[in-house]
Write a structure and sequence with these properties.
By secondary structure, the chain is an alpha/beta fold. It is globular, with a radius of gyration of 17 Å. Strand 1, helix 1 and strand 2 form a beta-alpha-beta unit. The longest helix has 16 residues. It has a five-stranded parallel sheet with strand order 1-2-4-6-9, with helices on both faces. It has a four-stranded mixed sheet with strand order 3-5-7-8.
C-alpha cells in the first residue's frame, strides 16, 4: 500500500501465474482486503515475471478430471467471486498487463476498469482450445469492450491478440514499453486514487447495471454451460494434449 494504491500481484512466475485453488483463494482474499481497506482508493493488479496470467492451472485441472471431479466448482466458488469482487469494487481497478493474459487470466484483466499493457503483452481467449466455453465473465465483459462480432471471433478462433491490436480494438487503454509498464500503470492508479472515489464507485455501478444485462445471471449461465463442456471427451482430450505439448483432436462430443 502506497499513495492510496493497493497493489495485488499474481506471484507464480515459473508457472506463468497460472491459477491453482490456492492462488484463486489468495487473489479473492486480496481483493476483499483492498475493498475493505479505507486507505486504498485505487487498486493495481499485475503479474510477476513474463506473464499476467496463463489462466487455469491445467495440471491441477487434469487431476480433477481424472478423478471424476470435473471443474470441482471452481467457476462458481472461485472465478465468479473474483470477477464480482473486481467489478463491484467501490474504487477503480487498474490492470498492468505485463505479458500473456490467457483464458481466465484474460477474463480477470477484462474485469478491471482500465488496462495498461506492455508491448510484449497479448490476450488469448483460450477456452475453445481446451473444449470449453467462456467463463470468468468473458461473455459479459468482452462484447462490451470490443463488440459482439469481434468477441465471437476472439472466443471461437482463440488466437492471440497482441498489445498493439488490443489497443486498436479497445481492449486496453494504453500500450507502453515493457520497462515502463509498472511506472505507467502505477501513475494512472495514483491519479485515480487521488480522484473522487465515491463518484468513481457510482460510475462503475451505473455502467455495470445500465448496460442492459445482469452480470450475476450471465455468470450463472456461463457456469452451467461450462459444467456441460467439462463433461465432454473433447475437453478431457484437449487438456491432456496441452499437457503433453500435442495438438488436440476435437471430435465434437
Amino acid at each position: 500500500m502506497a499513495d492510496g494504491v493497493a497493489t495485488i500481484r499474481l506471484n507464480r512466475p515459473d508457472a506463468l501465474n497460472s491459477l491453482t485453488v490456492e492462488t484463486k483463494e489468495a487473489l479473492l482474499a486480496a481483493i476483499e482486503r483492498a475493498k475493505g481497506d479505507t486507505r486504498a482508493r485505487a487498486v493495481l493488479l499485475t503479474g510477476s515475471g513474463k506473464a499476467f496470467s496463463a489462466g487455469q492451472d491445467l495440471r491441477e485441472h487434469a487431476e480433477n478430471l481424472n478423478e471424476g471431479r470435473g471443474l470441482d466448482r471452481t467457476v462458481r466458488d472461485h472465478y465468479n467471486p473474483i470477477i464480482l469482487g473486481l467489478v463491484r469494487m467501490p474504487k477503480p481497478v487498474v490492470a498492468a498487463v505485463n505479458g500473456t493474459a490467457a483464458g481466465a487470466g484474460a477474463s480477470i484483466a477484462l474485469a478491471c476498469d482500465l488496462r495498461v499493457a506492455a508491448e510484449r503483452a497479448s490476450f488469448l481467449m483460450a477456452f475453445a482450445n481446451v473444449g470449453l466455453g467462456a467463463d470468468s465473465g468473458a461473455s459479459w465483459t468482452l462484447p462490451r469492450l470490443v463488440g459482439h462480432a469481434r468477441a465471437m471471433e476472439m472466443l471461437m478462433l482463440a488466437e492471440p491478440v497482441p498489445a498493439a491490436r488490443a489497443l486498436e480494438i479497445g481492449l486496453v487503454s494504453k500500450v507502453v514499453p515493457d520497462a515502463e509498464l509498472e511506472d505507467s500503470a502505477r501513475e494512472l492508479a495514483v491519479r485515480l486514487a487521488q480522484g473522487p472515489t465515491v463518484a468513481y464507485a457510482a460510475i462503475k455501478a451505473e455502467l455495470t447495471f445500465g448496460s442492459g444485462l445482469d452480470l450475476v445471471n450471465a455468470l450463472e449461465m456461463e457456469a452451467g454451460l461450462q459444467d456441460q463442456c467439462a463433461e465432454t471427451a473433447d475437453h478431457l482430450n484437449a487438456t491432456l494434449a496441452f499437457l503433453n505439448k500435442e495438438q488436440p483432436d476435437f471430435e465434437g462430443h
